[in-house]
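Sequence in, structure out.
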Amino acid sequence: QVQLVESGGGLVQAGGSLNLSCTASGLTFSNYAIGWFRQAPGKEREFVADIKSSGTNTHYGDSVKGRFTISRDNAKNTMYLEMNSLKPEDTSVYYCAARLGVATMTSNEYPYWGQGTQVTVSS
């Protein structure tokens, strides 16, 4: 059974940083592309970042480009989202997701999802 477990969310002041982690089990992690998405109350799920299975290619949503960094450690079955210069509009529940094959910005192409972790940025 595939499981993705996020951690690292919390409350931070604007301009601060947080590091999210997502640990996977039940799959051959190195074969899977990973994505981070977020969803705020009343809003649609938004693409944040994705990373190829090998970790050699990454993509970012326009709203986080230059502030967030996605990475992965295939030996630890874990991926990371480093978030810097956080803004109140980054407040959301953040989800990691996994799919076999190429990375994509389209959330419904990911079959496996974590439970989400809340990130709150105060002004």
